[in-house]
Amino acid sequence: MDPKLQPISLSSDILHAWPEYYDIKTESWIAVDPTWENTSGIDYLTSFDLNHIAFVIHGKNPEYPMPAGMYKIENSRDVLIKPVVNQPVEKKEIVIEGIDFPTTISDKKSYQGKFVIKNNGNSYLWQIPVILKANNIVIEKEKFVIPVLVPFEKKTITFDYLAKDKNKKIQGELIINVLQKELLRQKITVIPFIYTLIINIFFFLLGLSILFLVYRVFTKIRHHDH
Fold first, then answer.
1. Is the distance from CB of 105 to CB of 191 less than 8 angstroms?
2. Taking the mean position of all CA atoms in its chain, how far away is CA 80?
């Protein structure tokens, strides 16, 4: 441990905050600590070591949540960090949730669907490619990129699609790949508009026929009563 970078006291937990700025070129947060400029006279922009371990990262609220060691009353040292030999195992796991799109469509209309990408792993994921493929279905936008997905974070993908062929009853298929892995394969049935129109006309005429028969029976009963 570099003695120039040691905190003011090693007998108690003297925790403090330091700012970080976002470097657009490296796409990472760079820590800067003006505190050690006053206490050690070193270059605080580049001299960072294991003394700088973040217990809490504040966002919109600059005071909460409180970091470890701030809840105690006595001046004691109870924040303990031990180095380990084994490295943490990185787990990359992406799942699809909230699938919401019609699986039976007309060849006359355009439809909108959506699904949720969730990071079930324990590490940040960057520039996540989401690719939609289809058979007998036209997807207006097939490729999406999620810039960053933190552990257990969710992102919603919305897409528009329609039938490829007209006046033909066919079976379509939608395939969703994330990180070059197939996560969903969904069948989509395309019903020609003319089929739907004929069925609607049939049921309309059937309804009129039933009403007419009911009316005839009702009027016949009334005449019989008289």
1. yes
2. 35
Give tens-digit pLDDT for 65-123: 777 666 666 666 667 777 788 887 888 899 999 899 888 888 888 999 999 999 999 88
Using CA atoms, how far apart are residues 160 and 138, in angstroms rounded to an integer?
Answer: 9
CA angle 139–145–151, rounded 5-degree value: 125
Consecutive H or E run containing 155: strand 154-163
The pTM score is 0.57
SS (HEC) of 58-70: CCCCCCCCCCCCC
* CATH code for the domain defined by 94-191: 2.60.40.10
**Closest to 139 (Cα-Cα) out of 116, 110, 181:** 110
Average pLDDT, the chain: 79
Q: What are phi and psi of 178, to 5 degrees?
A: -130, 130
Give the closest residue to 126 by CA, choosing from 28, 20, 25, 22: 28
- Tens digit of each residue's pLDDT (9 = 90 or more) over 121-180: 988 899 999 999 999 999 999 999 999 998 889 999 999 999 888 878 888 999 999 998
Q: Is 12 exposed, middle or buried, given 0-12, 13-18 or 19+ CB atoms closer than 10 A?
A: middle
